[in-house]
Every structure is written in C-alpha cells, then in structure tokens.
Design goal:
Blueprint (H helix, E strand, L loop, with lengths): L5 E3 L4 E5 L5 H8 L4 E4 L4 E5 L2 H9 L4 H11 L6 H13 L3 E5 L5 E5 L2 H9 L1 H4 L3 E2 L4 E4 L4 H9 L6 E2 L21 H11 L8 E5 L6 H12 L3 E5 L2 H14 L6 E4 L9 E5 H4 L12 H4 L5 E5 L6 H7 L6 E6 L9 H8 L2 E4 L2 H6 L6 E8 L6 H5 L3 H9 L4 H11 L5 E4 L3 H11 L3 E2 L5 H13 L4 E4 L14 E4 L7 H9 L9 E8 L3 H9 L1 H5 L4 E5 L1
Parallel strand pairs: 5-9, 10-15, 10-16, 11-13, 11-14, 12-13, 14-15, 17-22, 17-23, 18-20, 18-21, 19-20, 21-22
Antiparallel strand pairs: 1-2, 2-4, 3-4, 5-6, 6-8, 7-8
Helix pairs in contact: 2-4, 3-4, 7-14, 8-9
C-alpha cells in the first residue's frame, strides 16, 4: 500500500520520506513555508518557523493553504498545535500596520489589543514610539526601519504601507527586441504590484543562471528613476554595467563607484566592500553614497551577502524602492529577519527543478567523491584542533590526483576548479598550469581571464572564493570543488550556480571530501540547500 511521504510532528518539524513516489511533489509544495534542517539519504527534516511562514504569506500563500498542503501529503492527522501555530503566525502579518497619517506623520496601528500592550510594555520602544490612541503609536520617519527591526525580534512583523517616494526621472528602457521570460516578468509584478502602498520592496529568489539581473533591469524599466545597484565585487559591477549597455536603450552615463573609481551618475553600480570601508577614525566615509545620492531605487545583488554595517544604512532607506536578488535566503549569520524587515519579504521564488525542466537553467548532476587521509597525516590530524582538522582534511594532497581523473573524464568540457585555500590552489596550478584567479588578482586581469574563458581561449580556470558570486561564465559545464568555507549552504548553492547557465549539455558539480573527517561533517551541512531544491549527490569512494 502506498503511503504518504510526510510525517508532520507536534514540534513543527516535518520528515520527508524520500522512498515514497510522491516525495518530490510534496517537497515542492512545502518548500515555500519551511526550512530544510537535515538532508541524509532516507529522510529529510524540515522546520516550520515564524519567518518561513511570513515570507510565504508575503509571496501570496495563506495559512489555510499551508495547512491544506500538509494535510494532502501527511501520513497521519495533523497535531492541533501545528495548525494553531500556522494560523496564529500567518494571521500576524497584517495585524500591525505602518501607515502615513493625514498630516504626514507615521503611525503604527495595532489591530489586536494584545499586540498593542506588548509593544507598549517594551522599554526599548518606549523612547521611540508616542502613544496616540488605544491602538496607535506615532514615530519619526528616521526610526521607520529600526522599529520594524525591533518588532520582528518580538515575533511581530510590520506590514509597511507607507507610500514610497518617486525618485528623479531616468529614461530607462529595455531594447524592443529583448525577450523577458514570463517568470522574470512575474517576479517584477510581484515586487511592484499595481503601485499600491505596501509594495515596491522585497526579495526575489531565483537560482544562479536564471537571469536575476534581467529581473533587476525589468524593474528599472518599470520605475525609470535614479538607481543604485550594490554588488559583491568589482567583476560583478562590470558585469552589471555590461548588461545595462547590452540589453537597454539607455545611453546616459553609468557610474562605477568602487575602489578604482568614484563616479556617481543617475545609474550607479557599487560594491558592498567600498561601502563598508572604515577609515582610521572608525568611520564609514562612503556611506554618503547611499545617504546623499537622491536615489529612487536600490538593488541589493546577492542580498544574502549584505554586510552587517549596511543594515544600519538600509534602515534609513525605507522610503526608497528596494529589490534584493538572491539564489538563497539562507544567511550563515542568521540575519534573515533583518533582510525581511529592512529590504523586504520574499515576493517571488520558483523551484529550481521547474526552471531546469523548462530549459531555463542547465540540468546538473551533483557528485561527492570521498578519499582517505594519507597515513602520514593521521597523527597530525588526531592531535589538531577542530578548525585545524578541517583544513588538514580540506587540503588533502590526494585531491590533485582526483582532479586529474575528473579532467580526463570530462576532457571535452569547459571547467572551473574552485577552492578555499590559496596554497592548495597554487599546488593545483603547479600541477596543471591553468590560469588562477584569487583575491589578489587585479580586476583588469580577472576580466581578461573571464573573457578568455567565455571565448574559449582558456578551457579551465582555477578560482578562489572570489568567483562564488555574480560571475557570468555561460559555457562552464564542469565544476570541481576541492575545498569550501566550512559548512556554508549559501556557498554550495552559489558554486553550483556557476555551471547552471543554459547550454546544450548537462553540467557536473564535483565536490572532493576527505572521508571520516571534519570536512565530511561540514559537507553534509553544505549540501542542505541543494537537497531542498531536489538535487541529490551520487557518492563515489576512491
């Protein structure tokens, strides 16, 4: 007898039985309102949290629809504690509204008395909020972001309906013959709605290679205003500028604000790194770019990388249109709630498997290759600290032979060899002679090497973690990961994304791991996010 694949438990964890034939369908239905916690071979564990529910509600899913999906796939009857939690938490989104009063004053309105009393009793908010009635507080515009952030920490999400300001007009349009995919158009519509209050800010979640940049350009076309784009590094700055020139009719100046240039134009592209530069006095001299630019629209590319100091600044920018672009909402620092409050809730995402099925991203196969630790390193490993053990296992010199084997196995593919440790990458370069890109490589040299790779002059590149983000290498179909940043789920997703651009062949992602080591433990955590998207890792021992 066929059994349903979900086991929903009273603590709001969900076990997904991968051996049931409908497990993929069940997974796709619960992903929007759950978080993957564990992903071993037979049972995946998901968690329902307040934030996962609010992101789902913000993107159009109701609490009753969540409950109905769980009932449809649950093997046993749902515990009342689970359904109560979903109904209670989902209903809170919209119970506390931030709006503009008749005289322009900002008002925080509580639909439920219990929430009003909770806020009134909070000592930190006492100095910020002024009681206006039995359900309303007033606050200054400068504290708009801070109040939203403080309330989310109290499990009280704010439905911000204060109208956003229209920035200075900029005549930006995409070229008439450029085709935008339907899901990209849907993403922009979900962000902007009909222009009503409560829209115009939020996060779009799409896999690498699916055209997140196009979503940003389409939103720029809709808003036609002064735009600041913040990107992870200078290479991605140059890529944004190139895409704007290639796909739009905009013939005005585009500013680059980076370590190399300090240009401010109606459309300006900058890096998180320059914004967070701190001088000898401990000040952030480039914060003025955000504060004083008279922007109407800010795009946070790879928003999961938004540095902590920029959150302070983002709290001041609540009157602007805001778009976060990312392949994953996962932040290793746990600040997902700050992205939700300050940039905005998740407005749109789509399963990676759907885009793969429709040919919008490449079909990818994930492989984990496990190798043994050399006998002469066993004593050193056993007597080292946990952190040192990870590095010893990650830099296992046997990995070079595996790299050679994989290059021979895929000798007709264009590939990337990527790793965390520079000494390891230099040893690989010495063994094979491939060009290498690290953090110390000049931006001009990086751009030349990426260009040579795209054109086919170079077929294999060695890259450090600088290539994790926002690099467009459309023909890469092979990625060999020799080491990573401990258990970073977002890095695993970003690295797979390097080989997901649509092409006429399948892609292969190999990660080489020292078995029975700290590296193997971290590898299981790294793979969580991709497991959530339906990817499974074939295992090969050498």
């Amino acid at each position: 007898m066929k059994e349903k694949p979900l086991l929903v438990q009273s603590d709001r964890t969900i076990l997904l039985d991968l051996h049931q034939e409908d497990s993929d369908k069940a997974r796709s239905e619960i992903i929007p309102f759950t978080e993957l916690i564990k992903s071993p071979e037979h049972m995946h564990t998901y968690q329902i949290s307040a934030l996962s529910i609010w992101n789902a509600v913000a993107s159009g899913l109701t609490g009753e629809e969540m409950i109905e999906r769980l009932k449809r796939w649950s093997r046993y009857e749902l515990d009342e504690r689970v359904t109560f939690f979903i109904r209670d938490i989902s209903s809170r989104y919209g119970d506390i509204i931030l709006e503009e009063g008749k005289d322009g004053e900002l008002l925080l309105v509580c639909k439920k008395k219990k929430f009003f009393l909770q806020i009134e009793a909070n000592k930190s908010l006492e100095k910020i909020l002024v009681k206006r009635s039995e359900d309303t507080f007033a606050l200054s515009r400068e504290m708009r972001g801070n109040v939203k952030l403080m309330l989310i920490k109290m499990n009280l999400p704010v439905d911000d309906r204060v109208p956003l300001k229209k920035g200075e007009y900029v005549p930006f349009s995409l070229k008439p013959d450029f085709k935008v995919r339907k899901y990209q158009e849907d993403a922009v519509k979900s962000l902007l709605g009909n222009g009503e209050s409560g829209t115009g800010f939020g996060v779009i979640v799409l896999p690498c290679g699916s055209g997140k940049t196009i979503v940003g350009l389409k939103a720029m076309e809709a808003l036609k205003t002064r735009t600041l784009i913040l990107a992870p590094n200078v290479s991605s700055v140059h890529q944004w500028i190139s895409e704007i020139r290639d796909k739009s009719t905009y013939d005005g100046k585009i500013g680059e604000y980076s370590g190399e240039k300090k240009e401010i134009e109606p459309i300006t592209v900058s890096t998180y790194q320059i914004l967070t530069y701190r001088n000898d006095e401990g000040e952030f001299p480039h914060f003025s770019l955000l504060r004083d630019g008279n922007w109407g629209f800010v795009i946070y590319d790879e928003v999961h990388m938004l540095p902590a100091p920029v959150f302070r600044l983002t709290a001041e920018l609540q009157s602007l249109y805001r778009l976060g672009l990312t392949a994953t909402l996962v932040r290793e620092d746990g600040k997902e709630d700050e992205v939700f409050s300050l940039v905005g809730p998740k407005r749109f995402d789509t399963p990676w498997s759907e885009l793969e099925k429709n040919g919008f991203i490449a079909k990818a196969y994930c492989h984990e290759i496990r190798i043994t630790l050399p006998e002469e390193m066993e004593i050193l490993y056993a007597t080292s600290s946990k952190k040192e053990k990870y590095r010893i296992a990650a830099e296992n010199y046997k990995k070079i032979d595996v790299v050679r084997m994989l290059l021979e196995r895929h000798n007709d593919e264009k590939g990337l060899i990527i790793g965390q440790y520079l000494d390891q990458l230099k040893e690989i370069q010495k063994a094979f002679g491939f060009p290498i890109i690290t953090g110390s490589t000049k931006n001009s040299v990086r751009d030349e090497l990426y260009s040579a790779f795209r054109s086919g002059k170079i077929r294999t590149l060695i890259v450090s973690k600088v290539a994790n983000y926002a690099i467009d290498l459309p023909d890469a179909s092979l990625l060999i990961q020799v080491s990573g940043t401990f258990g970073s789920r977002q890095e695993e997703a970003q690295r797979l994304g390097r080989i997901l651009r649509p092409k006429d062949r399948d892609s292969h992602f190999y990660t080489i791991v020292t078995e029975l080591s700290e590296e193997e433990n971290y590898a299981l955590n790294r793979q969580k996010f991709l497991s959530e998207q339906g990817y499974s890792y074939s295992l090969e021992k050498i």
